[in-house]
Amino acid sequence: MAYVLQVGFKMNGPFGDEMAEAFTDLAKSINEEDGFMWKIWTENPEANEAGGIYIFETKETADKYLEMHSKRLASLGITDVKAKIFAINSKLTGITRGPVEG
């Protein structure tokens, strides 16, 4: 069963194309994480918020990534990280065209 990791935090930028340029290497490194399937990057420049929606193969790999990512964010001065992990109902997700197989 796949799991969603939802992460959000306050950030003063960069956003948009500048964010894409600044975090390209980070994005590539995320592809190498154990159990990682895919990520949607989220940003709200007006509210100074960023984060992502991640899909991992197991709850254990989502937990492991969250622990590492929280430490990485803390090293950048970002400590108020909001995160939740959810199991994916793949049958209903498939009906609504979600790219997760059961």
UniProtKB/TrEMBL annotation:
Stated name of the protein: Monooxygenase
Molecular-function GO term, any one: monooxygenase activity
Domain of life, source organism: Bacteria
Pfam families per the UniProt record, alphabetical: ydhR
Keywords assigned: Monooxygenase, Oxidoreductase
Keyword Oxidoreductase in record: yes
Signal peptide: none
Gene3D superfamilies xrefs: 3.30.70.100
Species of provenance: Oceanobacillus arenosus
Source organism phylogeny: Bacteria, Bacillati, Bacillota, Bacilli, Bacillales
The keyword Oxidoreductase appears for this protein: yes
